[in-house]
């Protein structure tokens, strides 16, 4: 992704807020069909964006947990490690 595209990319929180606003507007029942379809399309894009952000965050958390778990396991298996008091 280019720097310009990243600079204009919304944050997860912004996208979620916009999605909530779209849902409220659509639930109001006062939009004509063409506007409902446009909101639905925008909402679908925002859902996909949010899902991708959440997946990336989950992956990052898993990557952070693995080294920490490995370090704990190594320390537990190291006979030279001093026991904690």
Order of helices and strands: HHH
**Uncertain stretches of 5 or more adjacent residues:** none
Tally of structural domains: 1
Sketch the major β-sheet: none
Instruction: Identify the overall geometry.
Output: elongated
Please state the structural category: mainly alpha
The CATH superfamily name is Exonuclease VII, small subunit
Terminal residue distance: 50 Å
Question: Beta-sheet strand percentage?
Answer: under 5%
CATH topology: Helix Hairpins
- Measured on Cα atoms, how large is the radius of gyration? 22 Å
Salient structural properties:
single chain; 85 residues; mainly alpha; Helix Hairpins; 3 helices
How would you sum up this structure, described in words?
There is one protein chain. The protein is mainly α and 85 residues long. The protein has one domain (8-77): Exonuclease VII, small subunit (Helix Hairpins, Orthogonal Bundle), CATH 1.10.287.1040. Helix content is 79%, strand content 0%. The chain has helices spanning 3-8, 12-27, 33-77. α2 runs antiparallel to α3 (33-77). The protein is elongated. The mean pLDDT is 86.
């Amino acid at each position: 992704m280019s720097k310009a595209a990243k600079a204009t990319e919304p944050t997860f929180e912004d996208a979620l807020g916009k999605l909530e606003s779209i849902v409220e507007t659509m639930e109001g029942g006062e939009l004509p069909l063409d506007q409902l379809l446009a909101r639905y399309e925008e909402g679908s894009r925002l859902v996909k964006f949010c899902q991708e952000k959440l997946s990336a965050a989950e992956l990052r958390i898993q990557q952070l947990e693995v080294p920490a778990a490995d370090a704990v396991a190594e320390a537990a298996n190291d006979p030279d490690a001093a026991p904690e008091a």
